[in-house]
Design goal:
Oligomer: single chain
Number of helices: 7
Number of domains: 1
Largest sheet: 5 strands, mixed
Number of strands: 13
Strand content: 15-25%
Mean pLDDT: 79
Structural class: alpha+beta
CATH architecture: 3-Layer(aba) Sandwich
Helix content: 40-55%
CATH class: Alpha Beta
Distance between the termini: 102 Å
Length: 277
């Protein structure tokens, strides 16, 4: 296929992919307005769905592993589904992960794990290792290497994982590429889907609170847990929004505590003056 013909065939695919990015949560359903290559491509939110943790993959060092190896008590998992030779979108997704992680004072392998899985069953552990080195270096935290895992696998295992999280993708033979959406997934320590964060740019507060929530408060500071009480996740906006009644409740409690402290100080002062009289 000539370069001009290839560009022409990719143009509607690229335009539709940008529509998916702009639209956020897009159900992976047949839509007559989309090109055939993008049918069934998108996200179906399977909140609280259990991942098949017994799925087998191969890590970047060529070792056979099971998905459950990366789940530990108290540590949520940030899951990304990409393919390592993707010419554009996957790079944006992984760059977005690096950018937001730089704004959070946590380290993969300590407070959480990152699992990146290719959707292309032909990609090799050597390529996965190359990508891991590239992104750990871009992250600038060598200590993150043990906690960020780049996996390859067979088509059946990849499809089972993508179906569990509702990640719809399709191989486009004409361009030898995959059509897929852009999202990252927050998974609970016991392997359930907790949050979907769409697009390639993410708010650090949203990511942090998503992981605190997924871990049921077992990570994060007291302030994180306080914010989680006052904020609720807005799935349409893809971020945590303040809950007015909770803020008012907290404000009311704060007012009572301040008044109580003031009255106690007044009473103690009066009692002291009476003793001195």
């Amino acid at each position: 296929m000539s370069l001009a013909a290839r560009s022409e065939s990719v143009r509607p695919l690229l335009a539709a992919a940008l529509m998916l990015l702009a639209g956020g949560a897009v159900a992976a359903q047949a839509d007559p307005q989309l090109p055939e290559d993008l049918q069934d491509v998108g996200i179906t939110q399977n909140l609280d769905a259990a991942l098949p943790l017994d799925l087998e993959f191969i890590d970047e060092d060529g070792r056979r592993v099971v998905l459950g190896d990366y789940f530990a008590e108290g540590r949520p998992v940030l899951l990304t589904l990409v393919y390592y030779e993707c010419p554009m979108l996957c790079t944006l997704v992984l760059n977005g992960v690096v950018d937001v992680l730089k704004q959070i004072d946590w380290t993969p392998g300590s407070e959480f794990e990152i699992v990146t899985v290719t959707i292309d069953p032909l990609e090799t552990p050597a390529l996965a290792k190359q990508k891991k080195q590239q992104y750990v270096e871009a992250y600038g935290k060598p200590a993150a290497a043990p906690g960020w895992h780049f996996l390859t696998g067979e088509a059946q295992a990849i499809r089972a994982l993508s179906d569990a999280v509702g990640f719809g993708y399709r191989y486009v033979e004409e361009t030898d590429e995959y059509a897929h959406p852009a999202a990252i997934f927050i998974i609970t320590p016991d392997g359930r889907v907790s949050r979907y964060l769409f697009g390639v740019k993410h708010d650090p507060k949203t990511l942090r609170l998503s992981m605190v929530e997924a871990a049921e408060g077992r990570i994060g500071s007291p302030l994180d847990k306080f914010l989680l009480y006052c904020y609720r996740y807005d799935s349409e906006e893809g971020r945590y929004a303040p809950v007015a009644i909770r803020i008012m409740r907290v404000g009311g409690i704060g007012t009572v505590l301040i008044l109580g402290a003031a009255l106690l100080t007044f009473w103690l002062r009066e009692a002291r003056q009476k003793r001195l009289a």
